[in-house]
Amino acid sequence: MPGSPLRGQRSRPRSHPASTSAPEELFYILDGELDLLAFEPQTRTAGDWRSWESAAGARVMRGGPGSTMFVPAGCPHAFANPGTTPARMLFLVSPPGHERYLQEIGELIGQPGPPDPAAIAEVRARHDIQQLTPMVTGQPR
After folding, report:
1. What pLDDT is attached to residue 130?
2. Which residue in 29, 44, 73, 99 has its CB near the most CB atoms, within 10 A?
3. pLDDT tens for each residue of 48-73
4. Which among 27, 95, 21, 17 is positioned nearest to 61, based on CA atoms?
5. What is the rounded average pLDDT of the residues 126-137?
6. CB 37 within 8 A of CB 69
7. How many CB atoms lie within 10 A of CB 74?
8. Where are the domains positioned within the chain?
9. Residues β-bridged to residue 27
């Protein structure tokens, strides 16, 4: 499924609890750059996740055109576009079904005005997605 994170856009860290249906995700970057968190941090802070580090020293990685980035099933993850232009990527997920979550979230955040946190929480709960940091609404910085 193609995706185009806007400049400055970033997701909030989340995980899909390890189960037989927890998805694996793969990002292939076509244009622009993406920062990707794909590890369990030593400490989950409410601030910017891009400064998180794992117990083994893993840090957020940045990929550009041609980069492939993988998120194992059940692994906490988030991504951000650090650039000044939209990034384009191919997003692959297995098993299928995660595209329904993305469609529902896209519809909620694409409506005029700020998104309804309760509606977003309901969609995440229905799709077994755990939000790891407080939700932030408004325009990306």
Report:
1. 85
2. 29
3. 888 999 999 999 999 999 999 999 98
4. 27
5. 78
6. no
7. 15
8. 2-95
9. 69, 91
**Token match 């997605």: residue?**
129
CA distances from 104 to 28, 90, 134 (A): 23, 19, 19
- The CATH superfamily label for domain 2-95 reads Jelly Rolls (2.60.120.10)
> What is the pLDDT, as a whole number, of residue 96?
87
Which token pair is 98?
A: 């995660």
DSSP structure string for the chain: -EE-PPTT-BPPPEE--SSTTPPEEEEEEEES-EEEEES-BSS--SS-GGG-BBTT--B-EEE-TT-EEEE-TT--EEEE--SSS--EEEEEEESTTHHHHHHHHHHHHTSSSS--HHHHHHHHHHTT-EE-S----S---
- CA torsion angle for 110, 114, 118, 120 (degrees, to 10)? 30
Given a contact cutoff of 8 angstroms between Cβ atoms, the answer to whether 22 and 133 are in contact is: no
